[in-house]
Design a protein that fits this description.
The chain is α+β, with helices and mostly antiparallel strands. Helix 1 packs across helix 2 and helix 3 crosses helix 16.
Length: about 425
Protein backbone atom coordinates (compact mmCIF):
# COMPACT_ATOMS: atom_id res chain seq x y z
CA UNK A 1 0.00 0.00 0.00
CA UNK A 2 1.10 3.56 -0.71
CA UNK A 3 0.59 6.78 1.19
CA UNK A 4 -0.46 9.88 -0.72
CA UNK A 5 1.97 12.63 0.22
CA UNK A 6 2.00 15.15 -2.65
CA UNK A 7 3.23 18.59 -1.64
CA UNK A 8 0.93 21.56 -2.12
CA UNK A 9 1.68 22.96 -5.59
CA UNK A 10 1.46 26.61 -4.54
CA UNK A 11 4.42 26.47 -2.15
CA UNK A 12 7.40 24.92 -3.94
CA UNK A 13 10.29 23.28 -2.11
CA UNK A 14 13.75 23.84 -3.57
CA UNK A 15 16.98 21.96 -2.92
CA UNK A 16 19.57 24.71 -2.99
CA UNK A 17 22.82 22.81 -2.52
CA UNK A 18 24.35 19.80 -0.84
CA UNK A 19 27.57 18.11 0.19
CA UNK A 20 28.56 14.72 1.46
CA UNK A 21 31.64 13.27 3.06
CA UNK A 22 33.62 10.48 1.46
CA UNK A 23 32.09 7.24 2.70
CA UNK A 24 34.52 5.23 4.81
CA UNK A 25 34.42 1.46 4.76
CA UNK A 26 34.25 -0.22 8.17
CA UNK A 27 37.31 -2.38 8.72
CA UNK A 28 36.46 -4.37 11.85
CA UNK A 29 37.02 -1.64 14.43
CA UNK A 30 35.57 1.85 14.99
CA UNK A 31 36.61 4.50 12.50
CA UNK A 32 37.88 7.88 13.66
CA UNK A 33 34.64 9.82 13.24
CA UNK A 34 31.40 9.73 15.20
CA UNK A 35 28.11 10.17 13.36
CA UNK A 36 27.90 13.81 14.48
CA UNK A 37 31.51 14.42 13.38
CA UNK A 38 30.55 13.29 9.89
CA UNK A 39 27.37 15.39 9.80
CA UNK A 40 29.33 18.46 10.89
CA UNK A 41 32.03 17.76 8.28
CA UNK A 42 29.39 17.85 5.53
CA UNK A 43 27.36 20.74 6.97
CA UNK A 44 29.96 23.37 7.81
CA UNK A 45 31.42 23.78 4.29
CA UNK A 46 27.93 23.56 2.81
CA UNK A 47 26.69 26.42 4.97
CA UNK A 48 29.93 28.40 4.58
CA UNK A 49 29.45 28.75 0.85
CA UNK A 50 25.86 30.05 1.11
CA UNK A 51 24.79 33.72 1.18
CA UNK A 52 23.06 33.06 4.49
CA UNK A 53 24.19 32.71 8.07
CA UNK A 54 23.67 29.37 9.88
CA UNK A 55 21.47 31.27 12.35
CA UNK A 56 19.06 32.07 9.50
CA UNK A 57 17.94 28.42 9.40
CA UNK A 58 14.53 27.61 10.77
CA UNK A 59 15.47 24.08 11.79
CA UNK A 60 17.86 21.17 11.31
CA UNK A 61 16.44 17.70 10.56
CA UNK A 62 18.82 14.75 10.61
CA UNK A 63 18.31 11.09 9.81
CA UNK A 64 20.33 8.56 11.81
CA UNK A 65 19.54 4.95 12.59
CA UNK A 66 22.14 4.23 15.25
CA UNK A 67 23.54 7.32 17.01
CA UNK A 68 25.89 6.64 19.88
CA UNK A 69 24.80 7.05 23.53
CA UNK A 70 26.64 10.39 23.49
CA UNK A 71 24.56 11.63 20.56
CA UNK A 72 20.98 11.55 21.81
CA UNK A 73 18.90 13.74 19.49
CA UNK A 74 21.85 14.00 17.14
CA UNK A 75 19.93 16.52 15.02
CA UNK A 76 20.16 19.07 17.84
CA UNK A 77 23.84 18.26 18.34
CA UNK A 78 24.45 19.00 14.67
CA UNK A 79 22.60 22.33 14.88
CA UNK A 80 24.82 23.40 17.78
CA UNK A 81 28.09 22.12 16.32
CA UNK A 82 27.38 23.52 12.84
CA UNK A 83 27.25 27.06 14.18
CA UNK A 84 23.50 27.64 14.13
CA UNK A 85 23.50 29.15 17.61
CA UNK A 86 21.18 28.29 20.46
CA UNK A 87 17.90 29.31 18.84
CA UNK A 88 17.77 26.97 15.81
CA UNK A 89 15.97 23.77 16.81
CA UNK A 90 17.24 20.39 15.65
CA UNK A 91 15.56 17.01 15.64
CA UNK A 92 16.22 13.45 14.55
CA UNK A 93 14.26 10.96 12.44
CA UNK A 94 14.71 7.23 11.93
CA UNK A 95 13.23 5.13 9.13
CA UNK A 96 16.02 2.55 8.81
CA UNK A 97 17.65 2.82 5.36
CA UNK A 98 15.47 5.80 4.44
CA UNK A 99 16.20 7.92 7.51
CA UNK A 100 17.83 10.67 5.45
CA UNK A 101 15.06 10.62 2.86
CA UNK A 102 12.56 10.92 5.71
CA UNK A 103 14.54 13.91 6.99
CA UNK A 104 14.23 15.56 3.57
CA UNK A 105 10.52 14.79 3.44
CA UNK A 106 9.96 16.14 6.96
CA UNK A 107 11.86 19.32 6.12
CA UNK A 108 9.97 19.70 2.84
CA UNK A 109 6.60 19.32 4.53
CA UNK A 110 7.48 22.09 7.00
CA UNK A 111 8.47 24.36 4.11
CA UNK A 112 5.46 23.35 2.04
CA UNK A 113 3.07 24.09 4.92
CA UNK A 114 4.62 27.49 5.60
CA UNK A 115 6.19 26.56 8.94
CA UNK A 116 9.76 27.01 7.65
CA UNK A 117 11.69 28.73 4.88
CA UNK A 118 15.25 27.40 5.29
CA UNK A 119 16.08 23.93 6.58
CA UNK A 120 19.31 21.96 6.75
CA UNK A 121 18.40 18.29 6.33
CA UNK A 122 20.08 15.00 5.51
CA UNK A 123 21.54 11.99 7.24
CA UNK A 124 24.57 10.51 8.92
CA UNK A 125 25.76 7.14 10.18
CA UNK A 126 28.85 5.67 11.79
CA UNK A 127 28.16 1.99 11.27
CA UNK A 128 31.68 1.04 12.34
CA UNK A 129 30.73 2.27 15.82
CA UNK A 130 27.62 0.12 16.18
CA UNK A 131 27.72 -1.16 19.77
CA UNK A 132 28.54 -4.51 21.26
CA UNK A 133 25.91 -5.24 23.91
CA UNK A 134 25.79 -7.50 26.94
CA UNK A 135 23.29 -10.32 26.65
CA UNK A 136 20.58 -10.87 29.27
CA UNK A 137 22.68 -13.31 31.32
CA UNK A 138 25.44 -10.73 31.75
CA UNK A 139 22.97 -7.93 32.46
CA UNK A 140 21.29 -10.02 35.19
CA UNK A 141 24.69 -10.68 36.75
CA UNK A 142 25.39 -6.95 36.89
CA UNK A 143 22.00 -6.43 38.56
CA UNK A 144 22.78 -9.09 41.18
CA UNK A 145 26.20 -7.51 41.77
CA UNK A 146 24.64 -4.11 42.35
CA UNK A 147 22.32 -5.59 45.00
CA UNK A 148 25.14 -7.33 46.88
CA UNK A 149 25.95 -5.21 49.94
CA UNK A 150 28.21 -7.21 52.26
CA UNK A 151 31.71 -8.36 51.37
CA UNK A 152 30.56 -11.99 51.55
CA UNK A 153 27.65 -11.38 49.16
CA UNK A 154 29.97 -9.62 46.74
CA UNK A 155 32.41 -12.55 46.76
CA UNK A 156 29.58 -15.03 46.14
CA UNK A 157 28.30 -12.93 43.23
CA UNK A 158 31.80 -12.62 41.79
CA UNK A 159 32.19 -16.40 41.90
CA UNK A 160 29.08 -16.73 39.74
CA UNK A 161 30.40 -14.41 37.02
CA UNK A 162 29.15 -15.88 33.70
CA UNK A 163 32.34 -15.67 31.64
CA UNK A 164 30.72 -17.23 28.57
CA UNK A 165 28.10 -14.47 28.54
CA UNK A 166 30.80 -11.80 28.64
CA UNK A 167 32.70 -13.44 25.78
CA UNK A 168 29.59 -13.66 23.58
CA UNK A 169 28.21 -10.12 23.33
CA UNK A 170 25.26 -9.15 21.18
CA UNK A 171 26.59 -7.55 18.00
CA UNK A 172 24.33 -4.54 17.56
CA UNK A 173 24.92 -4.17 13.83
CA UNK A 174 24.01 -7.77 13.03
CA UNK A 175 20.95 -7.60 15.28
CA UNK A 176 19.88 -4.36 13.61
CA UNK A 177 20.11 -5.88 10.12
CA UNK A 178 17.80 -8.72 11.07
CA UNK A 179 14.03 -8.42 10.74
CA UNK A 180 12.74 -9.72 14.06
CA UNK A 181 9.15 -10.03 12.82
CA UNK A 182 10.08 -12.75 10.32
CA UNK A 183 13.53 -13.73 11.66
CA UNK A 184 15.16 -13.07 8.29
CA UNK A 185 18.16 -10.80 7.72
CA UNK A 186 18.43 -8.31 4.89
CA UNK A 187 20.72 -10.50 2.81
CA UNK A 188 18.27 -13.35 2.95
CA UNK A 189 15.51 -11.11 1.61
CA UNK A 190 17.73 -10.52 -1.41
CA UNK A 191 18.11 -14.27 -1.86
CA UNK A 192 14.32 -14.58 -1.87
CA UNK A 193 13.60 -11.95 -4.50
CA UNK A 194 16.60 -12.89 -6.64
CA UNK A 195 15.21 -16.41 -6.89
CA UNK A 196 11.72 -15.08 -7.59
CA UNK A 197 12.88 -12.92 -10.49
CA UNK A 198 15.59 -15.21 -11.90
CA UNK A 199 18.59 -13.06 -11.04
CA UNK A 200 21.75 -15.18 -11.24
CA UNK A 201 25.04 -14.95 -9.34
CA UNK A 202 26.69 -13.96 -12.63
CA UNK A 203 24.18 -11.12 -13.08
CA UNK A 204 24.88 -9.85 -9.57
CA UNK A 205 28.66 -9.95 -9.92
CA UNK A 206 28.63 -8.24 -13.32
CA UNK A 207 26.40 -5.48 -11.96
CA UNK A 208 28.70 -5.03 -8.95
CA UNK A 209 31.78 -4.63 -11.13
CA UNK A 210 29.91 -2.02 -13.14
CA UNK A 211 29.16 -0.11 -9.93
CA UNK A 212 32.86 0.12 -9.05
CA UNK A 213 33.95 1.04 -12.57
CA UNK A 214 31.29 3.73 -12.91
CA UNK A 215 32.27 5.27 -9.57
CA UNK A 216 35.96 5.20 -10.52
CA UNK A 217 35.18 6.99 -13.79
CA UNK A 218 33.08 9.58 -11.97
CA UNK A 219 35.93 10.47 -9.61
CA UNK A 220 38.58 10.39 -12.34
CA UNK A 221 36.50 12.65 -14.59
CA UNK A 222 35.73 15.15 -11.82
CA UNK A 223 32.01 14.47 -11.66
CA UNK A 224 31.70 13.67 -7.94
CA UNK A 225 31.41 17.33 -7.12
CA UNK A 226 29.22 16.76 -4.07
CA UNK A 227 32.06 15.07 -2.15
CA UNK A 228 33.93 17.33 0.27
CA UNK A 229 37.34 16.43 1.71
CA UNK A 230 37.31 14.86 5.16
CA UNK A 231 40.15 15.54 7.58
CA UNK A 232 40.87 13.18 10.45
CA UNK A 233 42.43 14.24 13.78
CA UNK A 234 45.44 12.07 12.85
CA UNK A 235 46.12 14.13 9.73
CA UNK A 236 44.64 11.75 7.16
CA UNK A 237 42.74 13.41 4.33
CA UNK A 238 39.97 11.42 2.65
CA UNK A 239 38.99 12.58 -0.83
CA UNK A 240 37.24 9.47 -2.19
CA UNK A 241 35.02 6.68 -0.91
CA UNK A 242 37.36 4.12 0.62
CA UNK A 243 35.26 1.14 -0.47
CA UNK A 244 35.93 1.81 -4.15
CA UNK A 245 37.75 -1.13 -5.76
CA UNK A 246 39.17 0.07 -9.04
CA UNK A 247 40.49 -3.39 -9.83
CA UNK A 248 37.15 -5.14 -9.32
CA UNK A 249 36.44 -7.92 -11.80
CA UNK A 250 33.91 -10.66 -12.33
CA UNK A 251 36.69 -13.22 -11.87
CA UNK A 252 37.60 -11.86 -8.44
CA UNK A 253 33.99 -11.64 -7.28
CA UNK A 254 33.30 -15.19 -8.46
CA UNK A 255 35.75 -16.50 -5.86
CA UNK A 256 33.77 -15.10 -2.91
CA UNK A 257 31.56 -17.44 -0.89
CA UNK A 258 27.87 -16.76 -0.16
CA UNK A 259 27.34 -14.72 2.98
CA UNK A 260 23.73 -15.38 3.96
CA UNK A 261 22.91 -18.86 2.68
CA UNK A 262 26.18 -20.76 2.69
CA UNK A 263 24.70 -23.89 1.12
CA UNK A 264 22.91 -22.62 -2.00
CA UNK A 265 23.08 -18.82 -1.71
CA UNK A 266 24.31 -16.38 -4.34
CA UNK A 267 24.53 -13.14 -2.33
CA UNK A 268 28.14 -12.43 -1.33
CA UNK A 269 30.03 -9.56 0.31
CA UNK A 270 31.16 -8.55 -3.17
CA UNK A 271 27.68 -8.06 -4.59
CA UNK A 272 26.26 -6.42 -1.44
CA UNK A 273 26.49 -2.86 -0.16
CA UNK A 274 29.36 -2.13 2.18
CA UNK A 275 29.13 -1.40 5.89
CA UNK A 276 30.18 2.23 5.87
CA UNK A 277 30.39 5.54 7.73
CA UNK A 278 29.35 8.81 6.09
CA UNK A 279 27.03 11.82 5.95
CA UNK A 280 25.15 13.73 3.25
CA UNK A 281 23.51 17.09 3.94
CA UNK A 282 21.24 19.33 1.84
CA UNK A 283 19.91 22.87 2.17
CA UNK A 284 16.18 23.20 1.42
CA UNK A 285 14.38 26.48 0.87
CA UNK A 286 10.99 27.97 0.10
CA UNK A 287 10.47 30.16 -2.96
CA UNK A 288 10.36 33.20 -0.67
CA UNK A 289 13.78 32.31 0.76
CA UNK A 290 15.21 31.71 -2.72
CA UNK A 291 14.24 35.26 -3.72
CA UNK A 292 15.16 36.86 -0.39
CA UNK A 293 18.70 35.48 -0.33
CA UNK A 294 19.22 35.25 -4.12
CA UNK A 295 19.81 31.50 -3.90
CA UNK A 296 20.62 29.37 -6.95
CA UNK A 297 18.83 26.04 -6.43
CA UNK A 298 19.97 22.73 -7.86
CA UNK A 299 16.38 21.67 -8.29
CA UNK A 300 12.89 21.33 -6.95
CA UNK A 301 11.65 18.54 -4.73
CA UNK A 302 8.42 17.70 -6.55
CA UNK A 303 6.96 14.81 -4.58
CA UNK A 304 7.64 11.83 -2.34
CA UNK A 305 5.96 8.45 -1.94
CA UNK A 306 6.24 5.87 0.83
CA UNK A 307 5.10 2.26 0.46
CA UNK A 308 5.02 -0.97 2.44
CA UNK A 309 5.16 -4.62 1.42
CA UNK A 310 5.96 -8.11 2.69
CA UNK A 311 9.12 -7.74 4.86
CA UNK A 312 10.51 -10.96 3.36
CA UNK A 313 10.61 -9.15 -0.01
CA UNK A 314 11.92 -5.89 1.38
CA UNK A 315 14.19 -5.25 -1.61
CA UNK A 316 11.24 -4.59 -3.91
CA UNK A 317 10.37 -1.45 -1.95
CA UNK A 318 11.54 0.87 -4.78
CA UNK A 319 9.01 -0.76 -7.13
CA UNK A 320 6.14 -0.19 -4.71
CA UNK A 321 7.10 3.42 -3.92
CA UNK A 322 8.20 4.63 -7.36
CA UNK A 323 5.32 3.20 -9.38
CA UNK A 324 2.53 5.22 -7.68
CA UNK A 325 4.82 8.26 -7.76
CA UNK A 326 5.06 7.99 -11.55
CA UNK A 327 1.33 7.39 -11.86
CA UNK A 328 0.47 10.41 -9.74
CA UNK A 329 2.34 12.64 -12.18
CA UNK A 330 1.39 10.74 -15.37
CA UNK A 331 5.02 9.84 -16.03
CA UNK A 332 6.57 6.79 -17.70
CA UNK A 333 10.11 5.44 -17.62
CA UNK A 334 10.80 7.51 -20.74
CA UNK A 335 9.97 10.72 -18.85
CA UNK A 336 12.62 10.11 -16.16
CA UNK A 337 16.17 11.02 -17.18
CA UNK A 338 18.05 9.63 -14.16
CA UNK A 339 17.30 6.87 -11.67
CA UNK A 340 19.12 6.42 -8.38
CA UNK A 341 18.13 3.11 -6.80
CA UNK A 342 20.14 2.52 -3.65
CA UNK A 343 22.23 -0.61 -4.17
CA UNK A 344 21.50 -2.48 -0.96
CA UNK A 345 22.35 -5.58 -2.99
CA UNK A 346 23.04 -6.07 -6.67
CA UNK A 347 20.36 -8.77 -6.80
CA UNK A 348 17.85 -6.42 -5.20
CA UNK A 349 18.32 -3.71 -7.84
CA UNK A 350 18.13 -6.24 -10.67
CA UNK A 351 15.04 -7.87 -9.14
CA UNK A 352 13.33 -4.46 -9.12
CA UNK A 353 14.04 -4.05 -12.83
CA UNK A 354 12.67 -7.50 -13.52
CA UNK A 355 9.57 -6.91 -11.39
CA UNK A 356 8.67 -3.84 -13.46
CA UNK A 357 8.88 -6.03 -16.60
CA UNK A 358 6.78 -8.83 -15.12
CA UNK A 359 3.13 -8.58 -16.21
CA UNK A 360 1.83 -10.91 -13.50
CA UNK A 361 3.64 -9.06 -10.71
CA UNK A 362 2.54 -5.66 -11.95
CA UNK A 363 -1.08 -6.77 -12.18
CA UNK A 364 -1.28 -8.66 -8.89
CA UNK A 365 0.99 -6.57 -6.67
CA UNK A 366 0.79 -3.08 -8.19
CA UNK A 367 -2.72 -3.07 -9.65
CA UNK A 368 -1.52 -2.20 -13.14
CA UNK A 369 -3.10 -3.50 -16.36
CA UNK A 370 0.23 -5.03 -17.37
CA UNK A 371 4.00 -4.61 -17.09
CA UNK A 372 5.14 -1.06 -16.38
CA UNK A 373 8.13 -1.36 -18.72
CA UNK A 374 11.89 -1.65 -18.74
CA UNK A 375 14.18 0.70 -16.86
CA UNK A 376 17.11 1.65 -19.11
CA UNK A 377 20.44 0.67 -17.51
CA UNK A 378 22.01 3.76 -19.10
CA UNK A 379 19.83 5.89 -16.78
CA UNK A 380 20.36 3.79 -13.63
CA UNK A 381 23.05 4.59 -11.04
CA UNK A 382 25.19 6.16 -13.73
CA UNK A 383 28.07 6.88 -11.33
CA UNK A 384 27.87 3.71 -9.27
CA UNK A 385 26.01 3.11 -6.05
CA UNK A 386 26.16 1.65 -2.56
CA UNK A 387 28.01 -1.49 -3.70
CA UNK A 388 31.02 0.69 -4.49
CA UNK A 389 30.24 3.81 -2.43
CA UNK A 390 28.84 2.18 0.69
CA UNK A 391 25.51 2.31 2.49
CA UNK A 392 25.67 4.21 5.79
CA UNK A 393 22.08 3.48 6.66
CA UNK A 394 21.12 6.89 7.99
CA UNK A 395 22.73 8.83 5.11
CA UNK A 396 21.95 6.98 1.89
CA UNK A 397 18.56 8.61 1.25
CA UNK A 398 20.06 12.09 1.06
CA UNK A 399 23.11 10.89 -0.88
CA UNK A 400 21.08 9.42 -3.74
CA UNK A 401 18.80 12.48 -3.87
CA UNK A 402 21.76 14.86 -3.98
CA UNK A 403 23.59 12.87 -6.62
CA UNK A 404 20.50 12.59 -8.79
CA UNK A 405 20.32 16.40 -8.82
CA UNK A 406 24.03 16.71 -9.55
CA UNK A 407 23.70 14.41 -12.56
CA UNK A 408 20.70 16.38 -13.84
CA UNK A 409 22.82 19.52 -13.66
CA UNK A 410 25.79 17.93 -15.41
CA UNK A 411 23.64 16.52 -18.20
CA UNK A 412 21.24 19.46 -18.40
CA UNK A 413 18.42 16.94 -17.97
CA UNK A 414 15.01 17.49 -16.39
CA UNK A 415 13.74 14.79 -14.01
CA UNK A 416 15.14 12.17 -11.66
CA UNK A 417 13.80 9.62 -9.21
CA UNK A 418 15.78 8.63 -6.10
CA UNK A 419 14.44 5.51 -4.42
CA UNK A 420 15.46 2.84 -1.96
CA UNK A 421 14.30 -0.23 -0.10
CA UNK A 422 13.85 -0.05 3.66
CA UNK A 423 14.41 -2.75 6.24
CA UNK A 424 11.12 -4.03 7.60
CA UNK A 425 9.42 -4.11 4.20
CA UNK A 426 9.07 -0.51 3.02
CA UNK A 427 10.10 1.67 0.12
CA UNK A 428 10.64 5.38 -0.41
CA UNK A 429 10.90 7.42 -3.60
CA UNK A 430 11.51 11.10 -4.38
CA UNK A 431 10.83 12.93 -7.63
CA UNK A 432 13.09 15.91 -8.29
CA UNK A 433 13.41 18.33 -11.20
CA UNK A 434 16.28 20.55 -12.29
CA UNK A 435 15.57 24.31 -12.25
Amino acid sequence: MMQSSAYHPDRAVFIVDGLRTPFLRAAGRPNEFSASDLAVAASRPLLARQPIEPMDLDEVVLGCAMPSPDEANIGRILALRAGCGHKVPGWTVMRNCASAMQALDSAAKDINSGRADLVLAGGTEAMSRAPLLYNDTAVNWFADSARARSAGAKVKTLAKMPMRAFLNPVIGLIRGLNDSTINVNMGQTCEIISHRFAVSREDMDAYSVQSHLRLADAFDEGRMTEVTDLYSPKGTVYTEDTGLRRDSSVEKLARLKPAFDRRVGIVTPGNSSQITDGAAMLLLASEDAVHKYDLKPLGRLVDVAWAALDPAQMGLGPVHASTPLLQRHSLSFDDIDIWEINEAFAGQVLACRNAWKDETYCRQELGLPGALGELDMAKLNVDGGAISIGHPVGASGSRITLHALQVLQQRQAKRAVATLCIGGGQGGAMLVERV
